[in-house]
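Record 1 of the preview.
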Amino acid sequence: MSRALHRYEWGDIQWKKIQKAVYKLQKRIYKASERGDSLAVKKLQKLMLKSKAAKLLAVRKVTQDNRGKRTPGIDGKTALTPQQRLEVSRQLSISSKAKPTRRVWIPKPGKTEKRPLGIPTIDDRALQALVKLALEPEWEAKFEPNSYGFRPGRSAHDAIEAIFASIKIPKYVLDADISQCFDKINHGVLLDKLGTFPAMRRLIKAWLKGGVIDNGVFQKTDAGTPQGGVISPLLANIALHGMENDIKNALLKSGEITKKGSNPVASLSIIRYADDFVVVYPKLEIVEKCQVLIQEWLNKIGLELKDSKTSLVHTLNEHENQPAGFDFLGFNVRQYKVGEHDSKRGYKTLIKPSNKAIKTHLRKLKSELRGMRGATQDAVIRKLSPIIRGWCNYYSTVVSSKIFDKLGDLLYKKLWRWAEFRHHNKGAQWIKRKYFRAHGKFIWMFKSEDGWFLQPHGMYKIKRHTKVKGIKSPFDGDRAYWSSRAGKHPLLPEKLSKLMKVQNGKCSHCGLSFIGNEIMELHHLDGNHKNNKPENLTLVHGHCHDRIHRTGMPVKHQEIEEPNESERFMFGSEDQ
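->
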């Protein structure tokens, strides 16, 4: 293998063939796991771990695709040269010894406290990516349908849609959070649940027990999976797998709930996104029993519910001084009483951005503007546009129109105060002429002389999200289904969405589908980043974009309609 790797350069690798070979093997693992053939699964996983194609792909994922690729581990290595990448792929082996992770502390959004991240070395990251290529298809075939966090092809919006579908009538809801999930998972229980072959078990155990180095001090890790590792989210999902089915089976066995046709306990929903979950059922005593059973189940893997983030509420009525509804993943889910002329049922279910999410967003805008009092208008537009766009795209799938309009008004006032601070000796008419110009039907657009403008919240449209089918996975080989979902993710800007649909969800350079959380970038065919006309744009993988500019290889053009957003979705321009 060593001699074979040195026959070509990193830039000469045919990545399309590499990805197809790896995906084909992953699909075989998925199918074997789906039919319960554990011997075939282990055999195929061993083949994956020895595959040169899988090793090359794993190295590319952590050294080129990953957004944290320049974060060093304890060895201090960050960016690698193409030759070094080849060398890392050649040395990947499951017999390798794991090194401790480097602990860094990052602030929690909107809080003063920080959470720890464990950053492995590049070699360990690449090996974890390789192991994930082998493990993920097996567990995607096993995971429960209402598990949505850290899984390919699934998102927070799928979890919200699942909740909406489960509360067609008023119900009680247990809204819960698992305390320090990543830090307290019992290693022995997790390894036993993996049920993998000895070499894989030893390697994963070495990562779990490898310890961390915090400010130069080594600390043992007797529990938990270090946040920051490539494989940590998958291991956490594996540890929490089975909670939904075990709780339902326990209630069925006790006779407290019954089956409904071929779908067992259809009215009891346990919807989980990573370590946050909700239990939804019409009867209060059943939801209370679920809380007890879930706590007992979590105790077996070394976890517990976080009391401060666990509450029992009703979707329509106040319950024990708790207002109706609940917050989940930044959304507020609640049913409102209405007259019969509005709804025959006498109530409506509305999902909106939570008050906490709105206040946090406003504080963020205020903080950024306060820190840019001396900046130019173009700089403010470039800074605020991605913040506003990301927030609006996240909440564009629910009842947000009125909230968007209100936030747009508040943003306008903040921008006016920013302009007044810069020009305290100027009048209102002068400030209006300099900073606010007409744009389409909008008369007071925050817009520079060069044509760049800040798109306010009210300009973002509501677009409904279709929930992923419960048993579907990108590894199942159903290309028709996954192609139909291409370009429909709520967080995908409108320009990317149009390109995705026209390109059938495929990169125009390598011809492979965009899967999971791969980086997607716009390529300007003429090399002029100011030319954002539709005939000059095409969508490619991040690594394909690097290769295009390095080799000068041509890219075919895809016809699309006139986009509404601008270059890299950061600000608007009249030149579009």
